[in-house]
Amino acid sequence: MTAAAIPENATIGIVGAGTMGAGIAQIALRAGHRVHLVDADAAALARARATIAGHLDRMVEKGRLDARDRDDTMDRLRPASGPAGIADCRLVVEAIVEDLSAKRQLFAGMEEHVADDAILASNTSSISITAIARALARPERCVGMHFFNPAPLMRLVEVVSGLATSSQVAETVAATARAWGKDPVMARSTPGFIVNRVARPYYGEAFRLLEEGAADAATIDAILRDCGGFRMGPFELADLIGHDVNHAVTRTVFDAFSGDPRYRPALFQQELVAAGRLGRKTGRGIYTYGNDVPSPPVSEEPPCPAPSSIRVEGGIGPLHAIVDAAKAAGVTVETTAEGPGMILVEGAAFGLSDGRLAIEHSLDGGYPVALVDWCLDWNISPRVAVAFCASMDEPRRRAIIGLLQAAGRKVTTVADLPGLVVARTVAMLANEAAEAVHLRVAGEAGIDTAMKLGVNYPRGPLEWARAIGFGHVAGVMTNLRRLYGEDRYRPSLRLQYWNLASRHQQHRSRVQPLVPDRS
Ligand code: NAI
To answer: What percent of the chain has pLDDT over 90?
Structure first.
């Protein structure tokens, strides 16, 4: 049976009136609760009150709230300076400084003031709920209620259970989050919970690609936006978050996993922090900010003539969108069902990245090969990223570029590295998500929801892997692991299992039933 939400007439306590506390208080007020907002600093309380009032005023101006509702909502907000302010609260959400000993001390103090059945939740983004709960006589009432910034706008709430958290408490908090208009996702208290764990490769692989000279930062960002469909590239996003914060999250997850190479912080980001280049807030991070600073250029191939004809050999999967568009532009297309899944253009070939190097494909195929990076939606992607085998001469490169341009795409060349940019990033995200499922951090649907709502991914990593085919994703991981020889790229057992299960399913559907269907 699912638990009921905390009723609207119950009082909610919020401790810590900073960025997050003010946002959470606004959500609870808007849901109709009385809110006791507690902070050690009177100025923080005044700022929080002003922030909430400002947001409500803007809603009134836009006609989304009437003035009387605004006044009633503000009347339900009661500031308090000490923990006694939470005495009659059914749910208290803590949003103080991210420090275990401060949180433990606060939770122990809160327990002295609240009723036995009150729920004590923490908005921590990185501290173990189990560790915070240790301070309590009733640790089963302690739960994570992790909102995302800006809390009033972001729909995701991770409901995090520590070792002692009762399922009734977690379900009550989830139901309450839902009643507050949020989308709760259940997670087990493990480092980074869902979002801060599964998102690590988005930054980690980007820094790795930059260090390896795949392309410059603006080009990597553009590929992940235009081809991957991500709202922001990893470097512009890390500049916005702040490299100090982003690096600290990676470091916390890396340390909590006892130095697992999957989460190893990037040396280059460490250098940015050491240099004080923290991103937008210091005017310089990966990029430089200022009124007169031009946007950094994205590397792009100049126009090349299209070849008059091409030959498609074997199944080329989503690259059909390119072939169809080239055909519509007047390129003659010859097709054979058999073959390596490549498009032959003037003595060279290109195909979709499978995590192998273009030069490996060239050795196998006997002709120079180029590899094309993955796209979220081949029908609308404005850009194609391509890596050429080093031995491909200029006329053949230009013929492939010309063909992709004839298909209406901007073409960006990247270095011949395993999995290029999008394929490698998406495979790593899906692999991390699969591992989180395998270790029962959260369910498949919950992880996809968390990544779409918490960090605005265009598709959940597992939905994405399913659409591409688990076999292709597992193949990219296997090739990354083989070529780098690093455990960082080990394919999750769950990913391999899903691949085997889907192959088994296909095999079964090909086998004739022993008893013929007579219907
Ligand atoms: P903040 O620094 O804006 O606000 C913290 C507030 O807590 C300050 O007003 C401070 O005076 C008050 N405070 C500190 N110790 C206190 C105590 N013992 N008793 C009462 N008040 C106390 O911090 P922010 O960004 O709001 O973060 C709060 C919590 O939320 C942290 O645990 C953080 O990890 C988490 N979080 C932060 C997110 C963000 O994007 N800022 C996102 C999700 C979670």
So the answer is: 94
Q: Whose CA is nearest to atom 31 of ligand 1?
A: 98
The protein residue whose alpha carbon is closest to atom 39 in ligand 1 is 149
Tell me how many degrees the CA angle 387-388-394 measures, rounded to the nearest 5.
135
**Closest to 485 measured CA to CA, from 418, 387, 416:** 418
Is 128 one of the annotated active-site residues of the chain? no
From 122, 123, 125, 362, the catalytic residue = 125
Q: What are phi and psi of 314, to 5 degrees?
A: 85, -175
Q: Determine the atom of ligand 1 nearest the C-alpha atom of 44.
A: 9
Which protein residue's CA is at the shortest distance from atom 4 of ligand 1? 18
Which mutation among 14, 15, 39, 127 tests ligand 1's pocket best, with the greatest number of atoms within 8 A of CB?
39
517: confidence class by pLDDT, cuts 50, 70, 90: low
Compute the mean pLDDT over every residue in the chain, rounded to the nearest whole number.
Answer: 96
22 CA distance to ligand 1 middle (Å): 10
Determine whether 504 is an active site residue. no
- Told to judge if 146 belongs to the known catalytic residues of this protein, a careful annotator would answer yes
Residue 409 contacts residue 375 (beta carbons within 8 Å): no
For residue 519, the model assigns a pLDDT of 43
Query: Over the stretch 272-318, which tens digit does the pLDDT of each residue have?
Result: 999 999 999 999 999 999 999 999 999 999 999 999 999 999 999 99
The model's pLDDT over 402-439, given as tens digits with 9 standing for 90+, comes to: 999 999 999 999 999 999 999 999 999 999 999 999 99
For ligand 1, atom 11, which residue shows the shortest CA distance?
41
**Ligand 1 pocket by Cβ (under 6 Å):** 15-21, 38-41, 44, 95-98, 102, 106, 123-125, 147-149
Give the CA angle between residues 36, 37, 41 to the nearest 5°: 145
Residue with tokens 């007439």: 9
Q: What is the DSSP string of 413-477?
A: E----TTTTHHHHHHHHHHHHHHHHHTTSS-HHHHHHHHHHHS--SS-HHHHHHHH-HHHHHHHH
Q: At 245, is the pLDDT very low, low, confident or very high (cuts 50, 70, 90)?
A: very high
Confidence (pLDDT) at 508:
76
pLDDT for res 54 = 97
Instruction: Report the sign of the C-alpha dihedral through residues 395, 401, 405, 406, in that order.
Output: positive
